[in-house]
Amino acid sequence: MDASRSLPTVTELRLAAFGTHRGAVFPLAPVTLFAGPGGSGKSTALQAYEALARLGAGDCLEEAFPDPSGCVPEGSEADAEGRRGFRIGCTVQGPAGPVRLDLALQAEPELRIVGERLSIGEQTLLATALRDPGRSTVQAAWHTGGDVPVTRAPLPDDLLGTALLPLRVAGRTEGQLKVLAAAEQMVVALRSVYVCDPQPQRMRGRVTVGAGRLRRGCDNLAEVLLRTQSECAIRYRELVAAAREGCAGPVETVRAEELADGTVRAVLGRGGERSTPLGRLGDGELRYLALALVLLTGDRVLAMDPAHEVPEALQSLTFLLDGFDRCLDTRQSRSLLELAARTCARENRRVVGAVGEGSAAAAYAREVAGVTVVDLSRDRTT
User: CB under 8 Å to 321, separation ≥6 — which residues?
Assistant: First the structure.
């Protein structure tokens, strides 16, 4: 069996009641692109995925949901106590089997988790419920096995209970070990996420050398390119090949140059003494180069916090790319999609992105093996 298939991987996103989505179930392929008209919920789906990732990494609810009222489905009525909320969840495949996580959250009058369920098949491994609205805790019950089948204890109502289980479960019984395996599988998959939205207007200038980890907006592209060209010859050659496909004119190299003032700038080598600073490129070329670099690099070069306690070989890496085809022409979209499909097929990578309705990327993606297009103009619920 292919070892990569046993790596913890999010294979389904559920938006039971979130933003524009109700009862939506989205299977996730190695490369999944949400397509649809404006307002159909493309960015909303990625927002839910990112929120789950942040909760899995230990962030509190306010960090994961900065605008909780905006997550409440349109037209939702408050109950007698003025409460409104939303529900999301996901499934992670891995060594423990298909593990489900389902969350019910209250957005108003205050943000809090009111219910969480971690399960495998029909067996509930963790369940929480809000018993006393006056306390900032939920009552949790997790599977123990042995002489005491269930352990009960309060947990904070602003943190993901699943992520707290390794600190609470001893792992002495078969039941406890099963709970820990499921919780670890879920947390590892959720933490292995990198969110990227290149901002061309911030990528044109010189940058100072820092940690060498690519930030969400890719404004330090030149710094990371300097690291890539010196540390990984194979990935660097692939990046140059991708640049030839997506940039206008001849491209011999894509390199970073250290300047006398201690800053770094990136240039396209055109052959001989000719070069073009990246600051002179169009928005589409800059976004294309940034996304190509993202797809070709690893978590140690990305500004993210993966599960360092788990070997990299036992983790998958998922890229969340909203506006995947923004500013790109047909040639660039095709080249980037082919690169994404190749990368995800050979390495432990996955892509979840959003493209415009009727775009070249959406049309071409349907012809690329390993790529699934979710058409939100018709596939909004399952």
Answer: 196, 197, 291, 294, 351, 352, 353, 354
Total-model pTM: 0.93
Quick one: which H or E segment has residue 166?
helix 161-168
Instruction: Give me the phi and psi of 328, to 5 degrees please.
Output: -90, 145
CA–CA dist 46, 140 (Å, integer): 28
219 touches 202 (CB < 8 A): yes
Encoded amino acid at 93, one letter: Q
**DSSP designation for 51:** H
Cβ–Cβ under 8 Å, residues 354 and 15: no
| 8-state DSSP, 216 | T
Query: Which residues have a Cβ under 8 Å from the Cβ of 127 and sit 6 or more positions away?
Result: 115, 116, 117, 118, 140, 141, 142
How would residue 360 be classed by pLDDT, with cut points 50, 70 and 90? confident
